[in-house]
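Lab channel / #folding
Pinned by the channel admin:
"Please post every new chain as: sequence first, then the structure tokens as a reply. Keep commentary short and put observations after the output so the thread stays searchable."

First post following the new format, from NK:
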Amino acid sequence: MNFGEALRLLKVGGLVRRTGWNGKGMWLALTPGSTITSEQARSGAVKAQVEQEKVTTVTILPHIDMRTADGGICIGWLASQTDMLAEDWEEL
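Reply from TO:
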């Protein structure tokens, strides 16, 4: 399938991957948006926004995450030109 079809699957809760990726066990998932309260802000950009802007909530926008070959989760995966033009996408 192509990237557009893969995006449609992500939007309905599916997991997708490319057969052309070298790493084993890699896949993508769409993470829905959420709201984090200042009490939940522990680190990173959310904590910085709370401290710098003195806000009580931070909105995290929907984004695509990747399960990496080493078992980690990469927050905010971005598609390369090759990924967007590939026809080897598949659903898990």
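NK: The chain has three helices and seven strands.
TO: also worth noting, The chain has a mean pLDDT of 96.
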